[in-house]
Known about the structure:
By secondary structure, the chain is α/β, with parallel strands linked by helices.
Amino acid sequence: MSRVVVWFSAGAASAVAAKLTLSEYDDATVAYVDPGSEHPDNERFLDDCEAWFGQPIARLRYDRYKDTWQVWEERRFLVGPTGALCTAELKKRVRFGFQRPDDLQVFGYTAEESHRADRFRDQNPGVTLLTPLIERGLTKDDCLALVERAGIELPVMYRLGFRNNNCIGCVKGG
């Protein structure tokens, strides 16, 4: 039987995608892949979102590397045309190990990111992707506002002025 897996990035968009998905599929699994280099405030945000979702978030981690810096130092590579090595090692590898072939997978692609969803589908033809934010026309700003309206303080990286809640010193997303 297929599962519905929401990939929670500790960002506002994936939080709203998770909340919407859980309203439709109450047995969905919300999974967070910890790359070891995000702001410590993300733990508070995950806890707040668990309360909002009414269920725990599965916390996953690759045990070979403790953080992005270890990947960069050992592999001597940051980012290139095909992406950041830390993303491949610390996030994608963990996702590939957790996902099942028949999973329905949810990512927090917003209305202005439909090109990213299209690219994901092209690059992952065996994955069934659900895009609740795109389907509802929700933008990044909508998601930020919805999280705040739910009474959840946004993660520190947003409050510091970053557009995304990426790792500290993200070589890919800034």
